[in-house]
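For the sake of transparency, this paper describes our internal protein records without simplification. Such a record has a labelled line for the sequence and another for the backbone structure tokens. Nothing more is needed to write down the fold, since each code stands for a local backbone conformation. For reference, a complete record is included directly beneath this paragraph.
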Amino acid sequence: MNLAENLSLSAAKTPEAAAVRLDDEVRSYRALDDASARVAGLLASRGVGPGDRVGIMLPNVPLFPIIYYGILRLGATVVPMNVLLKGRETAHYLKDPGAKAVFAWQAFAEHAQTGAAEAGAECIEAEPEGFARLLQDAEPHTAVTPRDGSETAVILYTSGTTGVPKGAELSHDNLAHNCRAAAGLFGIGAATVTLGALPLFHSFGTAASLGFKPQWILQGPAFVEQLITKDGSLKATPTPVAAALKGALVTSFSAPWDDPDAPGMRQ
């Protein structure tokens, strides 16, 4: 069971349904699936294959799930990386798992390139327009590479507050179970719209967001402010990561989760 099957099955069932929204940009499940197939093809053309490790150093933008699912689709392993990492830290995150490549958002490319050079990995800059041209030229890898559910899908690194950051391996089954549990706990269904208020490179953002079928909204502070103004029970708490993402999102978002109809989780 490859977790990337979630996206392909959703694209087959509801191809035109909105999958990801950031401000005025909306991507359907078909578009997300097609783009992920091109990411998989791009990686394959650069020598990446099943079981290889690939880093993602991006904020919450539509390219994150596209690249995430493209890596999984190829049968490779995702290594999510904090966008605040510096060159030396980036090198550890790539060298330790033996990553072959890393996708880096344009604003953080300098540190990613420094770390990738030290780790012997390729750094692929994810600048929206240039990256779109790169994917357009890539041969799509349409098939989802079969993986055993016990095989590693994602390697999440600890913060390293008490020592060197260590990688925790999450299997395809681990992540699928997390998503099923969260969907049942919060009553999430096909019509649900979820707010991407946690960094997708963080453990909670990865484990509880990226496997869902519902639409993700990766919105800016103005959108969150509207929710807060509309319902005073919501509280948004910006953190240093929010500032680093240049207004892309608010990274901490609390709501009365004992209420199944709490705004922000259901619409």
User: Anything to note?
Assistant: Confidence is low (pLDDT under 50) at residues 211-215, 228-267. The two ends are 31 Å apart (CA to CA). Residues 29-45 form the longest helix (17 residues). The longest strand covers residues 152-157.
